[in-house]
Amino acid sequence: xxxxxxxxxxxxxxxxxxxxxxxxxxxxxxxxxxxxxxxxxxxxxxxxxxxxxxxxxxxxxxxxxxxxxxxxxxxxxxxxxxxxxxxxxxxxxxxxxxxxxxxxxxxxxxxxxxxxxxxxxxxxxxxxxxxxxxxxxxxxxxxxxxxxxxxxxxxxxxxxxxxxxxxxxxxxxxxxxxxxxxxxxxxxxxxxxxxxxxxxxxxxxxxxxxxxxxxxxxxxxxxxxxxxxxxxxxxxxxxxxxxxxxxxxxxxxxxxxxxxxxxxxxxxxxxxxxxxxxxxxxxxxxxxxxxxxxxxxxxxxxxxxxxxxxxxxxxxxxxxxxxxxxxxxxxxxxxxxxxxx
Amino acid sequence: xxxxxxxxxxxxxxxxxxxxxxxxxxxxxxxxxxxxxxxxxxxxxxxxxxxxxxxxxxxxxxxxxxxxxxxxxxxxxxxxxxxxxxxxxxxxxxxxxxxxxxxxxxxxxxxxxxxxxxxxxxxxxxxxxxxxxxxxxxxxxxxxxxxxxxxxxxxxxxxxxxxxxxxxxxxxxxxxxxxxxxxxxxxxxxxxxxxxxxxxxxxxxxxxxxxxxxxxxxxxxxxxxxxxxxxxxxxxxxxxxxxxxxxxxxxxxxxxxxxxxxxxxxxxxxxxxxxxxxxxxxxxxxxxxxxxxxxxxxxxxxxxxxxxxxxxxxxxxxxxxxxxxxxxxxxxxxxxxxxxxxxxxxxxxxxxxxxxxxxxxxxxxxxxxxxxxxxxxxxxxxxxxxxxxxxxxxxxx
Lengths: 341, 397
Hints:
The complex is a heterodimer of chains A (about 350) and B (about 400). Chain A is α/β, with parallel strands linked by helices and about 350 residues long. Chain A has helices spanning about 45-55, 75-80, 100-105, 115-125, 140-150, 170-190, 200-205, 225-230, 250-255, 280-290, 305-315; strands spanning about 5-20, 20-30, 35-40, 60-65, 70, 85, 160-165, 190-195, 210-215, 215-220, 235-245, 260-265, 270-275, 295-300.
């Protein structure tokens, strides 16, 4: 499916306050028809709130959003006909069978009986759960339940599918299945997909464009490739460093170096360091040597989205306590990339 | 267009109600509790409050201090023989001989006795010299209920025995009808309906009304906040479904649940506790539905103000408890102080329970309960008028 130039979602100055707390802070973006659009950011960044406003579940404090030309507040009923949601909390009733669940939600869309029956059978077949259709969903594995949850959102053949952390709590196998299914859906039916995630892999593998969200704001929006160029296009490098006798003292010393933008410890021996400048390698080696460290390997890595996030925000997506304030030596943006607000 | 909308609203709400009830029926433990809860309530409340004055086996201490008159203790012996004779028939008392009043007090304090009878030293003397013979009833003030019961029971027995003696005394005067001389009045008690209604007849209508109305008032907030918490509410909210349908569907399901409980209580009341329904059973169900209607608004308001299930449940308990006792379900309102009676007048449950009792126990028809009907309808309409805008606002937060 090729992405058209026509916007299906238009978001203008969308803001949501909960009391004094601003969950979503004046964001604007467009999503093209047929696009898979990712909202990437740590928990509490405002991704889910944005999604809830777009799917008519929450009323914006300020700003507007429209889907297929319908305003999410004024024409909420029209918007609802066009969308489907899969949220982190599964929308299925455990005491109903798979079929009963699908029937119930399908009937809320006023789909004619014959059409709905046919569609349910097709969707069950699509996720290979046909033989379980008369079993209560509560007896299913998490992966199976998520598959039912996903096809539940497809009963009305939505033009836009909202996915809020769809792979959260799933085993890797099920995550891959769900990811493939979303990709297939997008390619075969041209369904526009908006996905929120804090999983870099999901975002990297699925999304045509990614908006990096932090503290209620979009701080970068581009394709995965372009986002990575923020790092590789500049004099920034990703170094994987393995030190046999790594001590916290050493880690601290490395972090304190002027050329180090961010450093995270992967395990007892490995450090993941984002550096800039020509002398970076030398400075790190000198520092480790001075502390009597024994370097067993040192590699220059391809930047991942995780690095991009780390580079831009100065903290990890996992909201690690191990933060380095980026303003110490100013934001390092390479090339033409600038913060997009 | 409008007709279509109404049709859609109803068809959606039926689906939601059907879904809720399917879930309910698949929840085995929940179903069992649905039956057990009213059974417990009936059994406990019904048996704690004895149906009439027939008390048995009261632990009574007897002190006979009678010193006699002219070497004769005939009057006190006669009294005691009479007392034992009566008690052998009624088994009202378990009599223990005690040496002194102080001992009775001691045994009451230890919980061995519930009261006492004292025949004073001058009993025979008074009786044989043409004076009144004094009898003392000792009661345990820490338990007003029991002490009142003992007082009434013993008074009755003593009066009866006194009457026998009096009849013997006046027999020479008027041999044909000595009873009319001694007791000029013959007092009889007659109920409005035939038979002898028990306490169950009093509480069964009240418990029915309460259970049905409470199940809507508690069930609605809990059902809605539960779906909000597990996230399934979003699934309904994101479909093109009128918010009214969600509310209506949930209300229908909870009403269904309440009515099922109501029927169980009715069946238990008739089958196990021997309650007879004097009035129309259709009117009974109509009243239960009207009770539900009057409570729906309140349920919705509470739903709108509670964010999670736990708060909903706690708020419900807080409201339910006073309502249970102030609405005359377990205790007659007339027993309460005036300010409590005034509060009870603002509770719809009072009227529902009252009307239901009139229909079930007294066989009243619609015309006799018109006041209650008007109040219930009025309360329902006002509460729903308040609740709907509040609910709409809550749903699109």
